[in-house]
Amino acid sequence: MANIRNHRELKVWQEAMDAAMEIFEITKAFPLEERYSLIDQIRRSSRSVASNISEAWRKRRYEAAFKSKLNDSESEACETQTWIEMALRCNYIDKNTAERLDRTYEEIMGKLVAMIRDSHNWTIRGSSEN
Question: What is the pLDDT of residue 126?
Answer without folding.
Answer: 53
